[in-house]
Amino acid sequence: MGVWMRALLSGLLVLASLVLGTAAFSAAWLERNVVAAEGFAALGEPLGRDPGFQAELREALAQQAADSANVPGPLAGLVAPAVERVLQGLQEAPGYGEAWTESLEASHQRTFSADDAGPAPAVLDLSPLARLATERIGEDLGVPLPAPGDVVADVGPATDWPARIASLAGTWPALAVGAGLGALLALAVARRRGAALAWLGAGVVVVGAVLWFAAGAVPSLAADQAGASPVASAFAAGLAEQAAASLHGWLIPALLGGGILLVLGLLGMALAPRRR
């Protein structure tokens, strides 16, 4: 095989490895943080303490409580103050953390199990929090209140993206193997392996930087797709910020690894004997 042919083939293999590696990285992140229910719950857990989201959540639960409360006439005037008292302290109430986690898991279940019925919107299921709030309001009033029905807010328009994401996420092991084989073959056929390694590392750094800035744009994209209700919009915006932070956390090791490969490749080029 000629020198230029080896260089061209090595370059193409480096490019293929970078493309497959980028796809594998994205699919693995989706598998861990979106498709997996526990990962989704962990991603959304900080919103349970976010002041902006909490304000919208209180408004949504207050409206639900006012609509569902059915108390005797003499107690009707006490409902609004009780609702305000309970919801102001709901975040510190026993069982709040478990109810919020259950809400996230229920939201994930509703969103990712709807593919059999065709396109459906992503939803925020607030039913566990509504039940907790209703129980606390009943305790405050001294009167048992009826359990609320489903309290669900659409986070986005109807779409089949959950099924597509689940399908893509499951391919990450094969994509990662392909990326690794591509990198090894690129080094095997390269005439100057140090240069091939340097190009591979530089490619990882460039791709990582592009993904870093792309992740930073996720919150603004989520704002454009937010649901009609304020609580759904606040949830979408907050979850997008958490997703961007998670992606940045995943990208740091990749950027460091790419930098190490680049340095090793440059060292290999400097120390390798020159070929005539």
TrEMBL record:
Keywords: Membrane, Transmembrane, Transmembrane helix. The chain crosses the membrane at residues 172-190, 197-215, 250-272. It comes from the Bacteria. The keyword Transmembrane applies. The keyword Membrane applies. This is Uncharacterized protein. It comes from Arthrobacter saudimassiliensis. The lineage of its organism: Bacteria, Bacillati, Actinomycetota, Actinomycetes, Micrococcales.
